[in-house]
Here is the input.
Amino acid sequence: MKKILITGAAGFLGSHLCDRFIKEGYQVFGMDNFITGDFKNISHLADNPNFEFIDHDVTEFIDFKGDLDYILHFASPASPIDYLKIPIQTLKVGSLGTHNLLGLAKAKGARILIASTSEIYGDPLVHPQTEDYYGNVNTIGPRGVYDEAKRFQESITMAYHTFHGVETRIVRIFNTYGPRMRLNDGRVIPAFMGQALRGEDLTVFGDGSQTRSFCYVDDQVEGIYRLLLSDYSHPVNIGNPHEISIRDFAEEIIKLTGTTQKVIYKDLPVNDPMQRQPDITLAKKILGWEPKVDRAEGMKITFDYFKSLTEEELYKSEHKDFTGFIKE
Ligand SMILES: NC(=O)c1ccc[n+]([C@@H]2O[C@H](COP(=O)([O-])OP(=O)(O)OC[C@H]3O[C@@H](n4cnc5c(N)ncnc54)[C@H](O)[C@@H]3O)[C@@H](O)[C@H]2O)c1
Here is the structure.
């Protein structure tokens, strides 16, 4: 039985990856410190003999007993509202955490895949973004802590590959959505759906002409799975190239949810990217991968998930409490 360590296991993507690798017959070790994650995302695995949970902060030394075949490093705050509140933890998990995990991969002879992001392209001057675009990032802007942590993460990963011969994979994830996203994490899909469910107006930042492209989680997981098992060690974009303006997307959500509320406009946050669209030519060529779930279908499944939350969860609008995690 192949053994895989998944960090960020109690988060949105990490928990779906745990499910997928268990389904594929792996022994899965999920690691998390719950800073932005929730045990609820993996509680269904608690009694599964092929799953073991390790409560650990990956920025601390990782003492893992036994063999490992693969590591997926997905631990990191991922939404702007999170990394603005915990900027130093965000920098540490991308740098120190990645260093620890690369060291573990080297010691165990394991292949490691790290979760990078479309954010490394910053506010892109090239559209759509191909993997050979170097990006346009403001190092000291509010998003710099996340973007630069991820850029460092890619660099140290390539250095371990070229210098130590560690088998590495780098996925550049574009906006992904689906069940288990946090309703109050500030990302546009949970934000709109939460507002619709609570009978509030939908908030659009700026004039709504900025575009985004959204990838359904099952498609993302399939891309990551194929990349891990491929022999390609350079970064690969995984995302859905179908682009939509935030204004049009708000209208789609109004139709889907049947809300009678309207769209209201607020000031655009600093360094909010105007356009994001992956060029997935490389993923198609080397992984034979492209997204299969269209937006209407994915949004319906996601909305059904948010509808299933309790009243308490729906109205818990205050942000996650990070007290207890802050020890810089
Ligand atoms: N969701 C997306 O659209 C998206 C896009 C680009 C990149 N990514 C990347 O994918 C990964 C997962 O994102 P997500 O959306 O699932 O976010 P998430 O916040 O739901 O999950 C991240 C998980 O990492 C854990 N974590 C954070 N710091 C940790 C630490 N020091 N030690 C142990 N665990 C820690 C959190 O508690 C959480 O469970 C991140 O690396 C993120 O940068 C996600």
The domain at 3-181+216-241+273-293 is CATH 3.40.50.720 (Rossmann fold). The longest strand covers residues 111-117. The pocket of nicotinamide-adenine-dinucleotide is lined by residues 7-8, 10-14, 32-37, 57-59, 74-78, 93, 97, 115, 117, 173, 175-176 (CB under 6 Å). DSSP finds ten helices and 13 strands in the chain.
